[in-house]
Specification:
201 residues, 21% helix, globular
Length: 201
C-alpha cells in the first residue's frame, strides 16, 4: 500500500498555454504521449460513494473500471481500480483479474458498499508532465456519460474547463507543493461532477 498526495489546481482553460510555459521554464518535461482515459464508475443504488465524496467522509472509496480507449471497455485492455481515502491518506489498488462482463451487467459486491453497478463513464484526453519530482496531469475534452445496466452510454455532458492535478508521494511535504505549485486549489471529483450533471440537475 502506497499513500500519495493529490491536489487539484484551479487553472482556466484559457490559461493552458501559460501553464505549459511555466512547466517548461521550471525544467518540467512531458512524461508520456497524450492518451485517452476512460473510466466507468460504480456505486450502489443509494449512491453512497457519491454522497460520501460530497460530504468528505473518511474512509470512503471510488470504484471504477479504467481503460485507454473512448469506446466501451475491452476484455484485453482494462483494470479494476479502487481509490480509498482514509485518515492516513489516499491510496489506490489495481486488479486486472476480474470478470468485466459480469461487473458491467450485474455489478460488483463490495464489502463496504454492497452491490455496486455502473453509473457513469468519464472520458478525457490526459497529458502527463514531471516537474520538481512531482507528476502533473492535465485533463481536457472531458465527457460525462450516463450508462445503462449494460454499460452503454445513454446521455452525455461536456466539461467546459480543464482539470489540472498534482500527484506526489506521501513523504513530500504539503508546504513544498504549495510553494512550488503556487496556483490556487479546488476540490473537484470527476465522478461527483458526472453524477450531479447526469442524475441531479
Amino acid at each position: 500500500m502506497s499513500f500519495r498526495k493529490e491536489e487539484k489546481l484551479h487553472v482556466n482553460k484559457n490559461q493552458l498555454l501559460n501553464l505549459l510555459e511555466w512547466v517548461y521554464k521550471n525544467d518540467g518535461y512531458k512524461l508520456f504521449d497524450t492518451r485517452i482515459v476512460s473510466s466507468t464508475y460504480l456505486d450502489n443504488d443509494q449512491m453512497k460513494m457519491f454522497h460520501d465524496s460530497e460530504e468528505g467522509v473518511v474512509p470512503r472509496k471510488k470504484i471504477r473500471i479504467r481503460s485507454y480507449t473512448k469506446q466501451a471497455h475491452e476484455l484485453t485492455q482494462r483494470s479494476l481500480e479502487i481509490k480509498t481515502s482514509s485518515v492516513e491518506g489516499r491510496y489506490k489498488t489495481t486488479n486486472q483479474d476480474f470478470d468485466l462482463n459480469r461487473i458491467m451487467t450485474i455489478g460488483l459486491l463490495d464489502s463496504d458498499y454492497g452491490i455496486c453497478k455502473p453509473k457513469v463513464r468519464v472520458s478525457y484526453k490526459r497529458d502527463y508532465y514531471k516537474i520538481h519530482n512531482v507528476r502533473l496531469t492535465i485533463d481536457r475534452n472531458i465527457e460525462y456519460i450516463k450508462v445503462n445496466k449494460l454499460g452503454n452510454g445513454t446521455y452525455k455532458k461536456r466539461e467546459e474547463d480543464i482539470i489540472v492535478e498534482v500527484k506526489a508521494n506521501n513523504f513530500v511535504p504539503i508546504e513544498y507543493l504549495h510553494k512550488k505549485f503556487h496556483f490556487s486549489r479546488i476540490r473537484f471529483s470527476k465522478y461527483s461532477k458526472a453524477i450531479n450533471l447526469l442524475y441531479f440537475l
